[in-house]
Write a structure and sequence with these properties.
single chain, alpha/beta, Rossmann fold, OB fold (Dihydrolipoamide Acetyltransferase, E2P), six-stranded parallel β-sheet, five-stranded mixed beta barrel, 14 helices, 21 strands, binds 5'-deoxyadenosine, binds iron/sulfur cluster
């Protein structure tokens, strides 16, 4: 079944802005907001859009969740624990609401977009005042106005998640680094993954819209942009524009931005053209997040990843031959249904072979409605925990070795501010996306400095600023 993609017309966005104005002048509107964000960068950026809309409606951010007039939970459902955490926090807030009945509790994002969730919220969570899915995010002003005017619950989840809203206000977390969504959704249907069901079909934004957003950010002083999409390598394949992701990267790199990153790349679509663009374009950071998930061909097949271990290693070889200093990171799943000890060890051996800078490791979590959820061969949780421990230990050792090998190198760091541990120290990220701490003055925040690496911790580097 092909789901229809809905490009939200600009008149609809204008209508929403009109609702926003009505909320702003409504005597009973909430005055302060607090957003709790779960999950990936995509969600973090969606929260910046939610905040942008709320600020347009005259709300200001509250530092204290329990004191806010509106608490919005932007949820994730990629694994069971993400979902349980969100529901646990929402339920905890129910107690606070007993003291402050005027508080509005909202829940949105991927968890809400799941089948039958709207009914579940209506029946089992009567204290949730506002709920809407990923496809309806841009309609927050309309829903909030309805909740304020009718003093009633608003639970809205369209069955389709595929919308492309342009021109939403954004309240960005950082003045130095910014996210830009280049495409929404995913068509890959990896057998374990719920994302295609809750984020809808792949749909790319127009290249001109993306470039215009980047130019605006550069003009406002942003130094680093991260282009976001579930699978950026298939950017443009759903549109008639004829702009590939490699070409888009090139265009964004010409806007005057000083450093450009992107994620996430699917190994099956990693083109030579992209590797070439990365290798020859100094604005693009020498880092690639390339989720492999498993080192076993049988598991990769059952995961519907549509590449083999050999293909993946060949892509890594092509990347390293074009960019010997590139930093690679990955995502790994252990205990996929039917995974044998030998198949798990294939993942460990791949990790040893690639030598990632770091890796996100997950225990497989069955998600209702996905193909893997019905596969036989569930792995015993004790075996799964033991496997993930071994995998983490292997990667930690490799991370330590990779970081130690950087001693003596000079790296370019975008300084973010004071380090969390020691106020006299500054912290920032190298091109390879590794945290670097060094002594410096606060005036360096928001600038690029060269740092000579003198030491390494378990996942950070230490260094001295060069003149
Ligand atoms: N169980 C465990 N990990 C998962 N991921 C996605 N779905 C699941 C699941 N059902 C992991 C993958 C993906 C990352 C974002 O989350 O590794 O790359
Ligand atoms: Fe999920 Fe696979 Fe799409 Fe990534 S590529 S979002 S793992 S379906």
């Amino acid at each position: 079944m092909r789901e229809e993609i809905k490009r939200i017309p600009s008149e609809e966005i204008a209508r929403q802005r009109d609702f926003a104005r009505q909320v702003r002048f409504h005597p009973d509107r909430p005055r302060t907001y607090y957003i709790v964000t779960y999950g990936c960068q995509m969600n973090a950026h969606d929260s910046e859009k939610l905040a942008g809309m709320l600020e347009e409606m005259g709300l200001t951010e509250s530092a204290d969740r329990t004191q806010a007039d509106l608490v919005l939970h932007n949820t994730c459902c990629i694994r069971d624990n993400a979902e349980r955490k969100a529901l646990g926090n929402v339920t905890w807030l129910k107690e606070v609401k007993k003291e402050r009945p005027e508080m509005l509790i909202g829940v949105c994002g991927c968890m809400i977009q799941q089948a039958e969730m709207a009914q579940k919220i209506l029946k089992q969570y009567p204290f949730i005042d506002l709920a809407f899915g990923t496809g309806n995010l841009y309609r927050l002003p309309e829903y909030l106005l309805e909740a304020v005017e009718n003093k009633d619950r608003v639970v809205r989840v369209d069955s389709e998640a595929s919308t492309v809203p342009e021109g939403l206000p954004v309240h960005r977390e950082s003045a130095i680094k910014a996210y830009i969504t280049v495409m929404y959704g995913c068509n890959n249907y990896c057998s374990y993954c719920i994302v295609p069901y809750v984020r809808g079909r792949e749909r790319s934004r127009l290249a001109d819209d993306i470039v215009r957003e980047a130019e605006g950010l550069v003009a406002s002083g942003v130094k680093e942009i991260m282009l976001l999409g579930q699978n950026v390598n298939s950017y443009g394949l759903d549109s008639d524009e004829g702009v590939s992701f490699a070409q888009l990267l090139h265009r964004v790199s010409q806007t005057g931005i000083e450093r450009l990153r992107f994620m996430t790349s699917h190994p099956k679509d990693l083109s030579d053209a992209l590797i070439d663009e990365m290798a020859h374009n100094p604005v693009i950071a020498p880092h690639l997040h390339l989720p492999v998930q498993s080192g076993s061909n049988r598991i990769l097949h059952d995961m519907n990843r549509r590449y083999t271990r050999e293909h993946y290693l060949q892509r890594v070889a092509a990347l390293r031959s074009a960019m010997p200093d590139i930093g690679l990171t990955t995502d790994l799943i252990v205990a996929f249904p039917g995974e044998t000890e030998q198949e798990f060890m294939d993942t460990v051996s791949l990790v040893e072979e690639v030598r990632y800078d770091s890796a996100y490791t997950f225990i497989y979590s069955p998600r209702k409605g996905t193909r893997a959820a019905d596969m036989p061969g569930r792995i015993d949780p004790a075996v799964a925990s033991e496997r993930i421990e071994r995998l983490i230990a292997a990667q930690e050792r490799i991370t330590g070795e990779v970081l130690a090998s950087m001693k003596g190198q000079t790296v370019r760091v975008l300084v973010e501010g004071a380090s969390r541990r020691r106020a006299a120290q500054l912290t920032g990220k190298s091109g390879r996306n590794i945290n670097v701490n060094f002594d410096g003055s606060k005036d360096d925040a928001g600038t690029f400095v060269n740092v000579r690496i003198t030491g390494a911790g378990s996942n950070t580097l230490r260094g001295e600023k060069e003149d």
